[in-house]
Specification:
157 residues; alpha+beta; DNA polymerase, domain 1; 2 domains; 16% strand
């Protein structure tokens, strides 16, 4: 066992991990961040996507020990002072959430995109979420929600 420190959504958590514990399993099972979904466990579905030091990472492929000292953001961390992030609001408004399983990972991929490129094209949005599988929406509502969030962020004072 190794003791590491993970800063998740602004709060530091010391946690004991084995050399083979994935970040997804530690976040979900040891720290209770159940919004981090575990789907395929081989990096193909994107449901476990979180931000690690601002970069979208499929957490099932990252060993927890490699995240020691990193700043991790889950979809829960998008909420500030009880207010949903504009991405979360737009996902709701555009019916981009159906079963909800892919939603946390989609949100984090979208957040990473908008942080890096505030005015993405539709093609850039589609490319940014291409690592996230959704079997319910057909993706169009998700793309529209991300574009609407980008437009609202752009027009905000």
């Amino acid at each position: 066992m190794q003791n590491i420190l993970l800063k998740v959504n602004g709060v530091s958590y010391p946690v004991d991990v084995t050399p083979y514990d994935t970040l997804a399993r530690v976040l979900r099972e040891k720290l209770g961040f159940t919004e981090v979904k575990i789907g395929c466990e081989n990096g193909e579905c994107g449901s476990c996507t979180v931000l690690v030091d601002g970069k979208a990472i499929v957490s099932c492929l990252m060993l927890a020990a490699k995240a020691d000292g990193s700043e991790i953001t889950t979809s829960r961390g998008l909420v500030k002072d009880g207010k949903l992030h504009v991405l979360q609001e737009k996902f709701i408004e555009h019916d981009a959430i159906q079963c909800g399983y892919c939603t946390p990972g989609m949100l984090m991929s979208a957040k990473a995109l908008l942080d890096m490129k505030p005015h993405p094209t539709e093609e850039e949005i589609r490319r940014a979420i291409s690592g996230n599988i959704c079997r319910c929406t057909g993706y169009q509502q998700i793309v529209e929600a991300i574009a609407a969030a980008a437009a609202e962020i752009e027009s905000s004072p």
